[in-house]
Amino acid sequence: MLAYLILMTFPVAMAFAAANDLFTMKIPNRISLALIGGFVAIAVMTRMPLESIGIHVAIALGVLAATFVLFWMNMLGGGDAKLMAAGALWMGPDHIIEFLAYVTAFGGVLAVAMLAYRSFLPANAFPLPGWARRLHKTGEGIPYGIAIAAGGLLLFPETAFFRALAF
Q1: pLDDT, tens digit only, all 167 positions of the chain
Q2: Every domain of the chain and the residues it spans
Q3: Which of 41, 63, 125, 152 has CB atoms 3.0–4.6 Å from 88's, for a disulfide?
Q4: Its pTM surpasses 0.85
C-alpha cells in the first residue's frame, strides 16, 4: 500500500504543477521538493544502488543547469526549470532523451495553441475568468509546466520505478 502512495507522487505532483502553472503562472517549490522526496523514498524502497542514484542526480543537475541558462535568458520560468530537473530525476538515463523530446514537442504544441488563442479568439468575445484573460495577453508567457507535466506523465508508466512497484 505504501508503495502505491509513493508511486503516486510523480503523477499527482506533475498534474498539480500543470494546473497551478495554468491558473497562476507559478509552480511552487514544494512541488519540486515533493518530487525529490518521492524519488528518494522510491529509490530506498526499490533498493536502488548508490551508483544509479548518483546517475539520476547527475542528470537532474545537468537539466537544472541547462534550464537555468534558459531562465537567465528569460526563455523559461524558474519554476519550470526546477520542475524539469525534478522530472529528469525520475526519468534517469533510460528515459531522459525521450522526456526532453516529449517536453519539447508538447511545448511546441502549447506555444502554437497559445498563439492561436491570442490571435483568433477576441479577448472580449466571452466573459473569461481572470486566469484566461491573463493568458490572452501578448507577451504574458506560456504555462510551460503543462508541457513538462505532459512529457513526464506520458513516460512515467515506462520507468523502472513504475514497473517495479505497480505490478
Answers
A1: 777 888 899 999 999 999 999 999 999 999 999 999 999 999 999 899 999 999 999 999 999 999 999 999 999 999 999 999 999 999 999 999 999 999 999 999 999 999 888 888 777 777 878 888 888 877 778 999 999 999 999 999 999 888 887 76
A2: 2-166
A3: 63
A4: yes
